[in-house]
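Reagents: none. Just compute today. Resolvase.
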Amino acid sequence: MRLFLCLALFALPSAATAQCLLCAPDATKGTASTRQAETPLRIDVETQLDMGRVAVGAMGGTIEVDPVSGARRLGGDVVDLGGFSLTGTVTVRGAPGAEVRVILPATIELEGGNGRRARVTGLATDLAAAPRLGPDGRLQFRFGGRLQIAALDDGDYRGRIPVTVEYQ
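Predicted 3D structure written out:
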């Protein structure tokens, strides 16, 4: 017997922060911090992470959405029910050329009907090691993750992913 599972994860921008002006060790960094403080970061969620529709059998399984390729991989006793999955897409705006740090949580709890819960782990982005805002003050990135599904656990699961972006 297979049960239907539908998942949607909503990225939720959290407060973007800038460096403390009083914490700058030298005047050069203080100038950069001042420029960045004058241009606050803005985070816009363009696309929500959606792992799609699947059926889960008695052995349970996993769904993984790759942030680079956008491909969805199913593992274990999970069957694709059609439709498509989406990587999450976030746009950050701020000081042109500024280096930023993007922070995603290690784990997200999803809630379904009848008090059921599921967990997404392994949230990852397609960002380079030291991301910077472009000359236009804009940076767009995609993110994905991995969902472990318990045996015969059906429902429509939803959750929020806090996305934090800080000037470096």
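Residues 1-7, 18-28 have pLDDT under 50 and may be disordered.
Action item: order primers for follow-up constructs.
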